[in-house]
Structures are given as C-alpha cells and as structure tokens.
Design goal:
single chain, mainly beta, about 0% helix, globular
C-alpha cells in the first residue's frame, strides 16, 4: 500500500531554515508528481510547492516563492522541501502528497491521491 512518511520538522527562530523529507513507498515513486501542503490550527490546508515526477518542473505558492525549494532524490524515493528565511506565518503541519500523474499543474488538494501524516514546523 502507498505510504508517505515525513520528517525534519522542528522549532526554529524566524529567519532560520529547515529541510523536510518525505519518503514514499508502495508505488512507483518515479512517475508521479508530488507536492507539499501545510495546515495551521484554525486555518484551511494550503498547497505550497509542487514538483513534477522528473523534477524538471516546479511550482510554488506566492507566499513561499523564493524561500522554499522542492527537490527529489529518486534513487532514495525521497522528496525534500528546503525552507529558508522562515517566518512565523510558515508555522504549520506540513505533509507531502502524491498525484495521479507526472505533472498536475495544480496545488489543489483534490488533485492528490495520497498524503502522509505530516511533520510539525514551529517558527518563533
């Protein structure tokens, strides 16, 4: 069965950096686009970063563009989200998700079939 396991969350000061990881298993990791979503308490879930299956295309929400970077290590079946210049408003539970194709071009939650449990990011 499909399993996505995130790690790398933690507590940092504003301006700091974190790198999140998401290990995928139970499916052909190399052929599906993936994305990161986040949800803060009392707020709706929002998509922040999308990457195509080969890593050649990326898309970022305007709130993180220029600060966050999405990448794959396909050999390790691992998705990464490098987060720099973190702001208090970036604090949330971050989860990765896998879509149904190599590129979906959307950060709509409904385009994604599976997601992980999430990892918590706190920014003070």
């Amino acid at each position: 069965h499909v399993q996505l396991v995130e790690s790398g969350g933690g507590s940092v000061q504003a301006g700091g950096s974190l790198r999140l990881s998401c290990v995928g298993s139970g499916y052909n990791y190399s052929i599906f686009a993936m994305a990161w979503f986040r949800q803060a308490p009392g707020k709706e879930r929002e998509g922040v970063a999308l990457i195509s299956s080969r890593g050649s295309n990326t898309y970022y929400d305007g709130s993180v563009k220029g600060r966050f970077a999405n990448s794959h290590d396909r050999a390790k079946k691992t998705l990464y989200l490098q987060m720099n210049s973190l702001k208090p408003e970036d604090a949330a539970s971050y989860s990765c998700a896998v879509s149904g194709g190599s590129w979906c071009g959307s950060l709509s939650w409904y385009e994604y079939n599976y997601s992980g449990q999430g990892t918590q990011v706190t920014v003070s």
